[in-house]
Design brief:
The protein is of the alpha/beta class and 336 residues long. A hairpin with a 2-residue loop joins strand 9 and strand 10. Bound molecules: S-adenosylmethionine. It holds the Pfam family TRM5-TYW2_MTfase.
């Protein structure tokens, strides 16, 4: 992503202007360089017209805020230190907070809801989080406070995403991954995204890059929300998105190959050879892997590449903790 180089004395004013124009990249830290400051900006053609020096500099990402810390502070004094220890990280999706309530905190639900509303006064719903279920990976939620709905609009990476947590998968914690992929993509690419859900990856990539995306999703509710999301963001997107309702295992063999394939694979599904067979230059393949099996996972991908007569380079990146010793990972596969 680019940065703008400005004199230190002008930096605050320029930063304010960039924010007003929606061009400042708040996910990155600015950097001092002598009498100058490098300000992080998003990749947008309007940057060139501002009259500042634009440099291709990778400024570091700000660490993800550990949002539960604030909740812990607010609840200190209302919950015992032992009870505070049971608080888990939670997510805010649009105006809905979703939180896991361990058994040890069941009797303090009212205080937890009070704390969440204190930290996030805009909340309209608080829901208790269960587990992902079935092929569509929909979580089981129960509403513990507020309006009786799980539908909302979530904002991330400069796009609006309509979600219905009761009907379609959505994980706000992948926003950093979506941004990482959007940065790797080049204008002009043709991209395939199977298992596309309500289209978070497609929207973020198309927000920043002038690309052609084909996305595939089997869950009819997710598909319909995805179509609404294309409409909702139409003025923001630089790229185009074609969305197909269907089973990736039936649809992909009928499609051509693409410069890049992004596979947010549902847990327990093996779509490696399917997705690799559609990728010409890059495959980003998400999976859940035990730490002791990371190397054999990499070897398996190299083996699949050899079967297809391709020479690949594979880097496996840990994306998040899933359960003790098991990680959600992304294999970035460069296809030779
Ligand atoms: C892990 S979720 C990822 C969704 C989305 N990419 C996201 O990150 O929010 C996997 C998605 O694959 C969809 N899915 C499951 N099996 C499928 C299949 N055979 N063909 C197409 N989509 C499928 C599920 O409905 C779900 O939306």
């Amino acid at each position: 992503m680019p940065a703008i180089r400005v004199e230190k004395r002008e930096a605050e004013g320029v930063k304010r202007r960039l924010k007003k124009l929606g061009l400042y990249d708040g996910k990155r830290r600015p950097r001092r360089e002598g009498d100058f400051v490098l300000l992080p900006v998003i990749d947008d053609p309007r940057i060139e017209g501002l009259g500042h020096e634009v440099l291709p500099v990778e400024l570091p990402l700000r660490p993800e805020r550990q949002i539960y810390k604030n909740l812990e502070d607010v609840l200190r004094g209302r919950l015992s230190e032992e009870e505070l220890g049971y608080l888990r990280r939670y997510d805010v999706i649009g105006d809905i907070a979703v939180i896991q309530i361990p058994q040890e905190l069941e009797h303090r639900v009212e205080e937890v809801v009070w704390g969440l509303r204190k930290v996030h006064p805009f909340l309209k719903v608080v829901a208790k989080k269960g587990f992902h279920e079935g092929a569509f990976r929909i979580r089981d939620y129960s509403i513990i406070w507020g309006e009786k709905r799980l539908k909302t609009v979530h904002r991330e990476n400069g796009v609006e995403i309509k979600v219905d947590l009761g009907k379609a998968f959505f994980n706000p914690r992948m926003k950093g991954e979506r941004y990482r992929l959007a940065k790797l993509v080049q204008d002009g690419e043709r991209i395939l995204i199977p298992f596309a859900g309500v289209l978070p990856y497609a929207l973020v990539i198309a927000r920043y890059k002038k690309v052609e995306i084909t996305a595939v999703e089997l869950n009819r509710d997710a598909y319909e929300l995805g179509l609404e999301n294309i409409e909702l963001n139409s003025k923001r997107l630089r790229g185009k998105i074609e969305f197909i309702h269907g089973d990736a295992f039936e649809v992909l063999p009928e499609l051509p190959s693409y410069d890049r394939v992004v596979s947010p694979t549902p847990r327990g599904v093996d779509a490696l050879s399917l997705t690799l067979s559609r990728a010409e230059r890059w495959l980003h393949y998400y999976d859940f892997v035990h730490e002791a099996k990371l190397e054999s996972f990499r070897e398996r991908i190299l083996g699949e590449c050899r079967k297809l007569g391709r020479n690949c380079g594979v880097k496996v990146k840990r994306v998040s903790d899933f359960k003790p010793h098991v990680f959600k990972v992304c294999a970035d596969v460069r296809i030779g």
